[in-house]
Amino acid sequence: MATALRITGFSTAEGPISTPTTKFGGQPVWLAGPQWPISAAWDRPMRFVGQLELGPVLGAPGHGKVAYLFVTHPDHGEDFFDPDVIDPDGGENAVIVQPGGDYAGPVRRLATGPGLYSRDDGSAVEFTVDLCATEEPGSLPSADRDGCLELVDGAKIGGTPVFFQGDEWPDGGPWRLLLQLDSNWVPFRLDLGASPRAFAFVSEDGTRGRLLVQDS
Fold first, then answer.
1. Quick one: which of 25, 70, 82, 132 has the fewest CB in 10 Å?
2. What is the SS3 assignment for 152-177?
3. pTM > 0.85: yes or no
4. The domain 2-215 belongs to what CATH superfamily?
5. Domain-by-domain residue ranges, the chain?
């Protein structure tokens, strides 16, 4: 069995969140100094998606650590050009782990940068998440995959991934699922494809992360 924290809702933050807790949007709360990843295609800072505490996913190896998620993404009102954000090694997304993380891509020492924004008017947004712990099967049995989907589907932190296009774990594992998120069903703009599902992963020792996207 695998423990997952299901995301049952997003709540607008009453003010800027300045603690290293799980959240989406706003600005990163760095634990070990600014480390903002740079888009290979655009040569500018990627957009900060959110930060996730690693303790609930990894236990002791994740205690006191945070993973910061980024993707290359246009500004509000900007003509959309889609660099290949789906590839975990394509230089257009990043998972930064602090402290003690190992990220090999280019970074700039920026404390703040592009963040999530409203679908309606492009204003900056920041959300906490409502979480509900649940136990999931550690893998999906091929004989009854469809019957188990409702147990593991949906937005969540940790647990068992539900891939649209066959198992697609990043190279260099073993990995744990950190985040599963359907970006069309979130209260902020996050363009990752037509019907995309984002998967973030973290290494079992809590030093590395990867992000990939699949379309249904």
1. 132
2. HCCCEEECCCCCCCCCCCCCCCCEEE
3. yes
4. YwqG-like (2.30.320.10)
5. 2-215
